[in-house]
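Lab notebook: predicted structure, single chain.

Context: the supervisor wants predicted structures on file for every construct in the current expression panel, including those that have not yet been purified. This is the next one on the list. No modifications to the sequence; it matches the entry in the shared construct table.
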Amino acid sequence: METKRVVVTGLGCLTPIGNNVEDFWKALTAGVSGCAPITKFDTTNFKTKFACEIKGFNPEEFIDRKELRKMDPNAVYAMVAADQAVKDAGIDAAPVDKERCGVIFASGIGGLNNLEQELKDYFTGSGVPRFNPFYITKMITNMSAGMISIKHGFMGANFATVSACASSNHAIITAFNFIRTGLADIMVTGGTEAAITPSSVGGFNSMKALSTNNENYATASRPYDVTRDGFVIGEGAGAIVLEEYEHAKKRGAKIYAELCGGGMSCDAYHISATHPEGVGAALCMKNAIKDAGLKPEDINYVNTHGTSTPVGDMPELFALKSTLGDSYSKTYISSTKSMTGHLLGAASAIEAIASVLAIQNDIIPATINVTQLDPNIPDGSNIVVGESLKTTVNYALSNSFGFGGHNASVIFGKVK
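Prediction complete. Output recorded below exactly as produced.
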């Protein structure tokens, strides 16, 4: 069966370093850190007291107060990012078939804020089950996809993907497959996360996964640095409008880049640790390159998963070197999590947007906060450190790996 080409025609985001795509990209290329002390709850008794929170965001500027009562921040972030992307793509104003427009929107955790509050109220109250009538719909992970479709009238495929930190890339790949196999014309995809909460921070602390560098929080997210001590949790959402190429051309849509391929795999190794040799990650990237019909040497830039954890960063680089072979030293590498922190289920959505913008602008965002590269980094690692780099980017690979051994990679390219 002949497959169709898929392009990106709309972008939207809400991130710790920018509440729209323009501000996000300016901050990325300027090397801005989104990390600051946590304001969402009292961190007195917590080992980690900082995070990458969204800043200067008032949801009432975007969503009616009555509707906000029905929504967890997880869904609020998704709606705001998706609205930006839909507007950017000009879908609502275009004569498109809404029955062939769908939404696949990810989250690793879902409505955690709402879940915590409802359970707290119950267990500290009289014990009478007086739960909010919106408790369930605010909590479940698929509600963001449902609400986006309800607002815009998209009647095509609609669901969520959940695979921890790989969730958004799985959503993007699934939406990609719907379009290229002819099952849809347009898909809104991406991911959202609102997990800067007591149970989340406390839980990750108990795993020793989070950085506890409270005195130097602004530079705590430092992928590949020898002193890295864990990831910095972030929040936000990223939304991408994918569209069949001829459909986009016919309606005169703005085209950012082409989604060329996607790869998936599983480590089949451990519930939270990456395979130490990056075997699953390498398989995933090889699958993506094969799916895109490319060769390793075609990849100019890799937006790595790069979480800033002592055990997580090296296996990905080992995997990259085995995947790219002789072209490894010629391929630029960076981790934008050094600026945004780790948005968990939404991470690969905003990193896909960063990759698309890197292609469009021929600029590679840097890995910031690195003062001394880990000596265990493979020879030939071409990591962009400190300042963004102006260079031609024809193809960009974006990686995401999640607890459970879930791996997903996407490749974007210039439209030819």
